[in-house]
Amino acid sequence: MKEEEIQINKARGMYYALLGMFFSYQSLSRHRQTAIAILEQIFANAINDQTQKDAQVLLNELEANGTARIEQEFDALFVDNFTYKCINLTASYYDEGWEFGEKCLKIRDLVLESEFRRNEEFVEPEDHLGFLLMFCSSLLEKANPCAIAMCQKIFAEILNDYVNFVVLETLKSKKAHFYKSVVKILGSFAEFERLYLDVTPPPLEEFVDLQDLKAQEKKAKWKKRVKADMDEDTLKQK
């Protein structure tokens, strides 16, 4: 492997690790100093000007106030389903409309093929964005041809298809502040990966939530049924 390729893979692993911390529940608080160190490197050698600006935003917050406000925002955006429909972070949800689908099974098989195993502290499914990013980081850290090829497979067949949806849904959210910077970094890095790995980007489109669509259809049918019943009662009264 050429020295240039080694250095690029180290940088890729650094981005995967950083983003994995931001998208894994309470991981940022456990690895705050590592996140700061990576953000400093990204700020010094950013993919583009926007990534540098967003790295600075996150650096300022982590150094001044720690992880509390960022983790509160994570909960509001991606965990709390009681007061607000949160943004789903699993590949299966964007592929099939529910979790634990084919994408999850595919990742489980890939994990079994590797020497890594999911940490029991990680409660989310294997096709969760946080897990996928951390898994790719671990694969690139191994730096052997099989691990690097598996990382490419995960990006091309899993991450590439749905990462844009996560970026767009987060940017649209009124609850997002720090995570707008996070997903901008994620979006820029995904574009780099597509170019570097020669992966075709997915069509630029908004996500259609199948669960919401079904709920709206049921509501529309219920309204029609109620209206029909009311019309029938009116006719009887006449």
Automatic annotation (TrEMBL):
It comes from the Bacteria. SUPFAM superfamilies: TorD-like (SSF89155). InterPro entries: DMSO/NO3_reduct_chaperone, TorD-like_sf, TorD/DmsD_chaperones. Gene3D superfamilies: TorD-like (1.10.3480.10). Keywords: Chaperone. The keyword Chaperone applies. PANTHER family: CHAPERONE PROTEIN YCDY, DIMETHYL SULFOXIDE REDUCTASE CHAPERONE-RELATED. This is Molecular chaperone TorD family protein.
